[in-house]
Request: fold
Amino acid sequence: MKTFIYILIAAACGLIIFNATHLDFDHLFEGESRVAAIGVLAAACVVLLLVILIVSRKISEKKR
Reply:
């Protein structure tokens, strides 16, 4: 399970990089750039949630 979480984090980071290349900072919330910005935000949320999951599992193991 631990390796699967790290694979998901790596995939989300890859999506952040991919979507960041599609951003147009002059017109950030128009057209394809809007979709890329939403994709970057969603992937960042996934990374944050998975890191929280890892930390909570470590706390759970120490509590036992």
